Amino acid sequence: MGTLPVLELDDGTCIAESMAICRYLEALHREPCNLGASPLDVATIEMWNRRSEFAFLMPIEFTGCFLGDDVAEGARQRVEKIMRLFDRELASPRFIAGDKFSVAAITTKVAIDFGVRLNEIIIPDDVKNFRRWHEEADSRPSANP
What we know:
About 60% of the residues lie in helices and about 5% in strands. The chain is mainly alpha-helical.
Protein backbone atom coordinates (compact mmCIF):
# COMPACT_ATOMS: atom_id res chain seq x y z
CA MET A 1 0.00 0.00 0.00
CA GLY A 2 3.06 2.24 0.01
CA THR A 3 2.84 3.15 3.69
CA LEU A 4 5.06 2.81 6.74
CA PRO A 5 5.80 1.06 8.99
CA VAL A 6 6.70 -2.22 7.34
CA LEU A 7 8.67 -5.04 8.95
CA GLU A 8 10.50 -7.17 6.39
CA LEU A 9 11.42 -10.65 7.63
CA ASP A 10 14.54 -12.57 6.60
CA ASP A 11 12.48 -14.62 4.12
CA GLY A 12 11.18 -11.46 2.44
CA THR A 13 7.73 -11.57 4.02
CA CYS A 14 6.51 -8.05 4.79
CA ILE A 15 4.20 -7.19 7.67
CA ALA A 16 2.60 -3.76 7.50
CA GLU A 17 0.60 -1.75 10.06
CA SER A 18 1.81 -0.93 13.55
CA MET A 19 -0.46 -3.25 15.51
CA ALA A 20 0.15 -6.20 13.20
CA ILE A 21 3.90 -5.72 13.72
CA CYS A 22 3.39 -5.40 17.49
CA ARG A 23 1.34 -8.62 17.60
CA TYR A 24 3.98 -10.48 15.57
CA LEU A 25 6.83 -9.32 17.83
CA GLU A 26 4.81 -10.04 20.97
CA ALA A 27 4.17 -13.60 19.74
CA LEU A 28 7.91 -14.08 19.30
CA HIS A 29 8.97 -12.37 22.54
CA ARG A 30 6.43 -12.47 25.37
CA GLU A 31 8.58 -10.36 27.70
CA PRO A 32 8.12 -7.55 28.19
CA CYS A 33 4.43 -8.17 27.64
CA ASN A 34 3.08 -5.06 25.93
CA LEU A 35 -0.29 -6.42 24.78
CA GLY A 36 -1.45 -7.99 28.06
CA ALA A 37 -0.87 -11.23 29.93
CA SER A 38 -4.38 -12.09 31.10
CA PRO A 39 -7.64 -11.81 29.16
CA LEU A 40 -8.58 -8.75 31.26
CA ASP A 41 -5.18 -7.14 30.62
CA VAL A 42 -5.52 -7.77 26.88
CA ALA A 43 -9.00 -6.21 26.80
CA THR A 44 -8.03 -3.23 28.97
CA ILE A 45 -4.93 -2.47 26.92
CA GLU A 46 -6.87 -2.81 23.68
CA MET A 47 -9.63 -0.53 25.00
CA TRP A 48 -7.20 2.23 25.98
CA ASN A 49 -5.14 1.79 22.83
CA ARG A 50 -8.24 2.28 20.67
CA ARG A 51 -9.23 5.33 22.73
CA SER A 52 -5.77 6.73 22.20
CA GLU A 53 -5.86 6.09 18.46
CA PHE A 54 -9.37 7.29 17.67
CA ALA A 55 -10.25 9.76 20.42
CA PHE A 56 -6.79 11.31 20.89
CA LEU A 57 -4.45 10.87 17.92
CA MET A 58 -7.09 11.48 15.24
CA PRO A 59 -8.25 14.81 16.72
CA ILE A 60 -4.61 15.84 17.18
CA GLU A 61 -4.16 15.39 13.44
CA PHE A 62 -6.99 17.89 12.82
CA THR A 63 -5.60 20.61 15.10
CA GLY A 64 -3.24 21.84 12.37
CA CYS A 65 -5.79 24.20 10.70
CA PHE A 66 -5.55 22.51 7.28
CA LEU A 67 -9.35 22.06 7.36
CA GLY A 68 -9.98 25.53 8.73
CA ASP A 69 -9.86 27.28 12.05
CA ASP A 70 -13.25 26.00 13.25
CA VAL A 71 -12.27 22.36 12.73
CA ALA A 72 -8.89 22.96 14.39
CA GLU A 73 -10.48 24.62 17.43
CA GLY A 74 -13.02 21.82 17.82
CA ALA A 75 -10.22 19.26 17.58
CA ARG A 76 -8.18 21.12 20.23
CA GLN A 77 -11.17 21.02 22.58
CA ARG A 78 -11.56 17.28 21.97
CA VAL A 79 -7.84 16.69 22.61
CA GLU A 80 -8.01 18.55 25.92
CA LYS A 81 -11.12 16.60 26.93
CA ILE A 82 -9.34 13.31 26.24
CA MET A 83 -6.24 14.45 28.17
CA ARG A 84 -8.57 15.00 31.13
CA LEU A 85 -10.01 11.49 30.67
CA PHE A 86 -6.48 10.06 30.63
CA ASP A 87 -5.65 12.19 33.68
CA ARG A 88 -8.52 10.60 35.63
CA GLU A 89 -7.44 7.12 34.49
CA LEU A 90 -3.88 7.80 35.65
CA ALA A 91 -4.94 8.75 39.19
CA SER A 92 -4.42 5.17 40.30
CA PRO A 93 -2.40 3.02 37.89
CA ARG A 94 1.11 4.02 36.97
CA PHE A 95 0.49 3.83 33.23
CA ILE A 96 -2.39 4.10 30.83
CA ALA A 97 -4.20 0.74 30.95
CA GLY A 98 -2.55 -0.54 34.12
CA ASP A 99 0.63 -0.75 36.13
CA LYS A 100 2.87 -1.87 33.26
CA PHE A 101 4.04 -0.01 30.20
CA SER A 102 1.98 -1.24 27.26
CA VAL A 103 1.16 -0.54 23.65
CA ALA A 104 -1.61 1.78 24.91
CA ALA A 105 1.03 3.93 26.61
CA ILE A 106 3.20 3.85 23.49
CA THR A 107 0.31 4.97 21.26
CA THR A 108 -0.60 7.75 23.67
CA LYS A 109 3.01 8.93 23.90
CA VAL A 110 3.35 9.00 20.11
CA ALA A 111 0.08 10.96 19.87
CA ILE A 112 1.01 13.63 22.41
CA ASP A 113 4.57 13.96 21.14
CA PHE A 114 3.23 14.41 17.60
CA GLY A 115 0.72 16.97 18.84
CA VAL A 116 3.22 18.95 20.91
CA ARG A 117 5.91 18.94 18.22
CA LEU A 118 3.82 19.55 15.10
CA ASN A 119 0.52 21.08 16.21
CA GLU A 120 1.50 23.04 19.31
CA ILE A 121 -0.67 21.02 21.68
CA ILE A 122 -0.12 22.16 25.26
CA ILE A 123 -0.61 19.82 28.19
CA PRO A 124 -2.67 21.82 30.70
CA ASP A 125 -1.04 22.40 34.08
CA ASP A 126 -4.00 20.92 35.96
CA VAL A 127 -3.76 17.46 34.33
CA LYS A 128 -1.07 16.46 36.81
CA ASN A 129 -1.43 12.68 36.45
CA PHE A 130 -1.16 12.88 32.66
CA ARG A 131 1.81 15.24 32.93
CA ARG A 132 3.52 12.87 35.44
CA TRP A 133 2.91 9.92 33.13
CA HIS A 134 4.26 11.79 30.11
CA GLU A 135 7.42 12.84 31.97
CA GLU A 136 7.99 9.25 33.13
CA ALA A 137 7.41 7.91 29.62
CA ASP A 138 9.87 10.50 28.29
CA SER A 139 12.52 9.36 30.76
CA ARG A 140 12.50 5.77 29.43
CA PRO A 141 15.64 4.90 27.43
CA SER A 142 13.49 3.71 24.53
CA ALA A 143 11.83 7.14 24.30
CA ASN A 144 15.07 8.85 23.35
CA PRO A 145 17.15 6.45 21.26
